[in-house]
Amino acid sequence: MSLIVLGVLEFSSIAIGIKVLDEMVKTAPINIIEAKTMCPGKYLIVFSGDVASVEYSYNKGHEVGKNYLVDSLYLPLIHQDVVPAIGNIVESKEWNTIGIIETLSVVSAIEAADIAAKVGGVKIIEVRLAIGFGGKSYVKMMGSLDDVQAANSEAVERAKEKNQFLLDVVIPQPHNEIKPFFMK
Q1: Tens-place pLDDT, residues 15-27
Q2: What pLDDT digit, counting tens, does each position of 154-166 carry?
Q3: Which domains does the chain have, with CATH numbers?
Q4: In what order do the strands lie in the sheet with 6-11?
């Protein structure tokens, strides 16, 4: 696992999200991975950098936008498979068991992906962020049946603790006819 520090802030106000973004980049040198509006009228900031910069900017974001914060995440050691899957589909030659976790926030989906990847044995295929989903997000993973069940179970537990869980599905031995639709 390589060291990647990630911060994610999700706001219920677009205006406050943009203000927070400005304050965060003025606070410390961070790399903005994603900063955008989302359904239903929310604002998302995903950022990385060194540990201190991400922590300072994360804390500044909390301070400035605290009354509009929907969900947040500070991960000083996110699993290396998660960041490439955020908003993208990662190729997988494996076609064994599919796991899907649907959450009510972007932050919870990213956190679920990280937990699932750290449980081990699964490949994170995609972390889809709330665009066109009414504010919901989802994680897609693949692996053996036992690994997907274990990863789903751990990740779902955390989303439930935060009241951000909607649904999870495990599909053992998926039919080859659905592969082109799963991978897009």
Answers
A1: 999 999 999 999 9
A2: 999 999 998 988 9
A3: 6-75 (3.30.70.1710), 82-182 (3.30.70.1710)
A4: 31-38, 42-48, 6-11, 69-75
